[in-house]
Model the fold of this input.
Amino acid sequence: MRALIFANGMLDGQEKIPELIRPDDLIIAADGGANHCDALGITPDILIGDMDSVRADVLKRLRAAGTEIVVHPARKDQTDLELALGLACERGASEVIVLAALGHRWDMSLANISLLSAFEVPISFVDGPQEITLIRGGRQAEFHGKPGDILSLIPVGGDALGVTLEGLEYPLENDVLRFGATRGISNVLREKIVAVCLRQGMLLCVRIRQ
Done:
């Protein structure tokens, strides 16, 4: 099962969001993310958070529609998005897509990006033409796009070792991307499907559709 989470950040590319949704997706609104759902005419299956950001009229409509509402206290140790991700995993999600995870507040955006490493299930942040995912050591990922799309690779938490890139303008073979260096930025797809293999470390992968 795939979960689709609406967070409370900036929502880009709204006209394409209905194309992302599958009939069997579990749709979760993280507090004020329910306002985005309301604007798009989407009724989430679950609303979770401390309810400090969702509008009162939206909350009323969701109660009437039968949305499951999970209320947490305002004084808590987790953000609403972290709670939503945890709930998605508890409900059996094998893949998670998060919309509106980033915004004007750098602290919240950076904290949200760090959540990519907190769960074992694959998580993608989608923001219009941009998508962020995380690759862990010992794994390989495929990215589907079109020639000319951008793929940037950013080591996190230390150097990325044994990096192999196939189908890109700047390929690598069992190479190292150093933490704190920008060598992996702005690579370009040459094929419709490219592969990224990592032996050790973690890589943030940012794909930008052109």
